[in-house]
Amino acid sequence: MQIIFSSNNAKKLQEVQSILSGFNVKSYRAFLDTIDIVENGVTFEENAHLKAHSIYKLLEGIEGDYCVLADDSGICVDALNAMPGIYSARFASIQEGAQEILQGCFAIPQKECSDTLNNLKLLACLEELGITQSSASFVCVIAMHARVKGVLQQRTFRGECEGKVFKAPLNPQAFGYDPLFIPKGYTLSMDHIQEKNSISHRFLALQQCKDFLESLGTANIP
User: Fold this and answer.
1) pTM to 2 decimals?
2) pLDDT at residue 150, as a whole number
3) Spatial CA neighbour of 43 closest among 145, 178, 156, 207
4) Of 72, 115, 178, 191, which residue is the catalytic one?
């Protein structure tokens, strides 16, 4: 079965292809022009389904079975009342500071920002709160819209990786908030952990998805 990932983020696509080894995973850009999907859900689950549904509908004309996977993920920091959460990719667009964020008094961010700017925003919030670290968790929700033997299958898979964020130097080669996150049971930040793709929130969600696809007999996984 063709697996179509509804993202054009090269680093995220590489992670998905690595975790779903054995499946033929391509970006939706192999089939469609770039499209803008308004992520106006209030949970990871809602946003993931919005993306999966949008791509699935646009691909209904292709032949055979196919599976659209959409990822919505982010980091939830306890000291910030689980922010930035669903706004993780847009966190630096929030002009308000940590105190306003804690009170929920901020404008909903619209513009995606670079990993570096988002990391700097999180560090600035920690500094404003007078702390150097906080418990936190990475969350990933994978929404699946698949056509299997002509029948639509919809599922949601959620993975969480617990740990903490801390004040640390940034790594411009790293992905997302990895340089500021240490998983539970580790002493290194996520960007320095070789087995990242076997412990991450994305791995945990995709492993559930992989198990489900195998149960349908849609692929022969070595």
Assistant:
1) 0.91
2) 85
3) 156
4) 72
